[in-house]
C-alpha cells in the first residue's frame, strides 16, 4: 500500500481535533510519523508527570486523553478520507504514555519499551489486528495501539522479572 502524503499545516490548524489527532504536528513528519509520534510521547512524558503527579491522577489523565483520542481520530480520519491515516499519531502517543507509566525510569528500560512498542504496533498481533482491520472508526484506531501497549508492558515485565538488574 502506498504511503499517503502528510496533510498540510492548514489542515492541522483547521480543527482542534486535527491538531490533537496529528500529535500537535508530530504526525506531519515525512519519515515514519508513527515513530515520531511515539518519540513525541516519550519526550513529553516527563513534563506531564511534573504536572500530573501521582499514578492515579495520571491514570485518569490517560483515560480522558484516550476518550479524546477516539473522537479526534474519528474527526481527523473522516476529514482525511482515511480513518487511520499515517499522520494520525494520537493513537501512538496516549498508549505509549501508559507504557511509560509502567516502565522503570532508567533510560535503557524506556528505550526497550520504545522499541517493543514500535515492534508490536507494526506487527499488530491479535487482537490489535482485529481492531485495525475490522473496527473502522476512532475507537478502532486507538484500540489497536492500546493492545500494542499491553503487549509492551507485558514484555517489559517479563524481562524485568528475569534480568538481574
Give the fraction of residues assigned to helices: over 70%
What's the count of strands? 0
Strand content: under 5%
Radius of gyration, whole Å: 15 Å
Question: What is the tally of helical segments?
Answer: 8
Arithmetic mean pLDDT: 95
**Element-level helix/strand string:** HHHHHHHH
Shape field: globular
Task: Please give the alpha-carbon distance between the first and last residues.
Answer: 42 Å
Low-pLDDT ranges: none
- Helix/sheet category: mainly alpha
- Biggest beta-sheet profile: none
Count of distinct structural domains? 1
Explain the overall architecture.
The relative contact order is 0.15. 72% of the residues lie in helices and 0% in strands. The mean pLDDT is 95. It is mainly alpha-helical and 165 residues long. It has helices at residues 9-14, 16-21, 33-51, 55-80, 90-101, 107-123, 128-134, 138-162. It has one domain (9-162). It is globular. It contains eight helices and no strands. The termini are far apart. Helix 3 (33-51) crosses helix 5, helix 5 (90-101) runs parallel beside helix 8 (138-162) and helix 6 packs across helix 8 (138-162).
